[in-house]
Design a protein that fits this description.
The protein is an all-alpha fold and about 110 residues long. The chain is elongated and about 55 Å long.
Length: about 110
């Protein structure tokens, strides 16, 4: 599916012939979606649930970067929190901060 979406992007941008119009149409007729809408709140909640599970198992919220996606997400949350502390704009809300702090996030 990922490769199909990448080929479709190339097809759209460069008139690549690897996907024919007929093939595209047949996929669309069965409900294939070329893009997936990103629900940022749902994505944040999913990562938060992963962090809760990590904290439950490991006793803290210090996720090392060897846990690639979760580790990067935690690092990003800390950078957003730091921005807020320094009076800079940050998409991190007070509600999310409270959620993070409720599981021992520092």
């Amino acid at each position: 599916v990922k490769d199909l979406r990448a080929a479709y992007t190339l097809h759209s941008e460069e008139d690549d012939a690897s996907l024919t119009a007929n093939f595209i149409q047949r996929l669309e007729e069965i409900g294939f979606r070329w893009t997936i809408p990103l629900d940022k709140d749902a994505a944040w909640a999913a990562k938060f649930e992963q962090l809760k599970e990590y904290a439950k198992v490991n006793g803290d919220c210090f996720v090392p970067l060897k846990h690639k996606e979760l580790g990067l997400w935690v690092k990003y949350q800390r950078s957003l929190y730091s921005k807020m502390e320094h009076g800079e704009k940050s998409p991190l809300t007070e509600a999310r901060i409270a959620e993070l702090e409720s599981i021992g996030f520092e």
